[in-house]
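Let us practice reading a record.
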Amino acid sequence: MARPRFLPDNLTLMLLAVVITASFFPCTGSVAVGFDWLTTFMIGLLFFMHGAKLSRQAVVAGMVHWRLHLTVLLCTFAVFPLLGLILKPALLLVITPDLYLGILFLCVLPSTVQSSIAFTSVARGNVPAAICSASASNLLGIFLTPLMVSVIVVAHNAQHSSLDSILKIVYQLLLPFVAGQIARPWIGAWMDRNKSWLRWVDQSSVLLVVYVAFSEAVNQGLWRQVPVTMLISLIVISALLLAIIMALTTFGSRRMGFNKEDEITIVFCGSKKSLASGVPMAKVLFASQTVGMVLLPLMLFHQIQLMVCAFLAQRYRSRPEENDASAKLGQVR
């Protein structure tokens, strides 16, 4: 039986189930402490796997298209954060400071890998460039996102120790990632053969962190602080951010002279934000009582970007083949 088109993706459905479970049955006491230790281990395992899965050959092979990759990285780590800062006065009129911190966190995250490549492929875009751009974004995000978040945390949450944040970044994110890269020559082939099974490890880590974060947030009175009207405001804000960045990447790539295939890659890689990287990073970078609030904008944005990108990929795919051929011919000339 075909899956109904109106249903969200499986991860979104599982995230919704986890949030509902945490809302009614939050973990407390010694159980919460045990889950906290488990999430620390799972985050380390997740970033070890990120390091082991990242193909250095794919990154090196795509470096020749440096203008496209630089455009994607600027959209991800410069335009998006500036957009979040520029909109601050308007956003704080409708959401709380903690939720605004979540918007800023969303803005400094790296791009997704799997879905960016998948949508680029569906839309008949430049898939090798998408692989390179998405991989480079995730690699740089390991360093850039914590650095940018540390500045935001210092500005918005004086109780959080910047030295503590740096140490957590090193031993929970960077060291496992580097260890995974070192181990790739020995375990990379095995991981490539078991991608479908290992994806469950990725998703289980995300779901576990979300459950622990939302349990803590519910215990702190999350749903009293976020009424339905504010939740609707967050959805509108997420849709607005996505619309602005997609407009900028679409028309910007055309003004810069990229062909249609490269435009597609820039739009999908430059406008998306990684839930898989964002959830564990939030657990490491933010105080436990604020993680749930910080993750809420990211979870909403994740679902909106998937729905919009799925529609847009089909629109791109339906374009005439002649357009691609003429664009490539123009580049050759």
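A brief commentary: Residues 325-333 have pLDDT under 50 and may be disordered.
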